[in-house]
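BUG: 3D viewer hangs when loading the predicted structure for this chain

Environment: internal workstation, default settings.
Expected: structure renders.
Actual: progress bar stalls at 90%.

Input used:
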Amino acid sequence: MTPATDGSATASGPIDFRRCQNDTHTFDLGIFAVHITPDNVKSVNMVDKDAYMLQRNLEEIEPLNAQSRFLRALCNGHLIHPSVPRDDLKAIADIGTGTGVWMEEVQQEFEATHAGRNVQFTGFDVSETLFPCQNRPGQTFVVHDAVQPFPDEYHEKFDLVHLRFLSYSIEPHQLEDLVEFVSEILRPGGYLQWQEIDAIDAWTIPETSTAKQIIYWLVKERLTRGLTPAVTTPIVKALQSRTIQVEEGKINPMCWTNNLLRIYHLETLSTYQHPSTEVNSTKYQWTINFMIPLLQSCASSRSAKARERRLPWIVAEGLLVEVAEINQLIETMKRCKDPKVSEFEVLITRIVARKAKIFAEDGPWLSGWHGTKAESQ
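Structure tokens produced before the viewer hung:
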């Protein structure tokens, strides 16, 4: 990141936070800008002592944005799944929005294809660290933990709720709460779009000892933080197992809670032999950008644990040995120039679910599911 003449910076190198210690700077990251002051420069580099496996700091912004571009190519250019009718979208929420890059890309696409449409975007995240310093018209950013109930003002407000890669921050026992609270902010008939990658759904061709070590440490760290190495199946189960509340003495489906969700589309996307030239040309760098920060998080958490005063020295010594092993693994990944050996293939699961929609007391549940006249009501 190099400074521009107006005191901002461009995305041509790493961010130098030292320049922010005594002055205020704006970092222009192409799609948006981040405003850093002397008061918050310390906080953006903190290591969070929670389940989240990455550091919430500005050095994460560029990899997150590159990741979003890669995932778009992997999904054949679709930011929103084709099964979701775009003409019905007036309010869109992004859970775990981070930098807001997904909302930004969708908004730009809407401006190009649906000129004049007034679509409102709301990004929710547990931390405001990565929020852009200035919101574009139609965008709102809200600090909120999605495993807690949303304020009433957001209930049944959104036509589409987007979630991506929350498995690196959500513990298994929080999953049902997350699904419940997200379903509450969806309007009846609204859509939920969710993308996840499991730590076990990554491999190399040919298989290498480096690859085995990477997966070993990522799985171990997820378990240490109370996360699960495989979250896709529990998500599907949570979506399909929403509690059905039936009034006593009645069995008519009209008595079901209209927070009920049903999976509308489920697919697995693979980088292996993907037809996109962009995917094949960038997946090696995407692997580096995605996995190295996770490994760095593994090393940081063990290093912090080893410094605890009451920890027996033999345990601390073992943790420092692990830190050295992980750091050596990171350096091996950085130095490797042969993508045929070091390149990972991954599977990403994409889920589209729809919230129950009841048109009338005498009408069928989820009327218009297959595009009948009732769908447009």
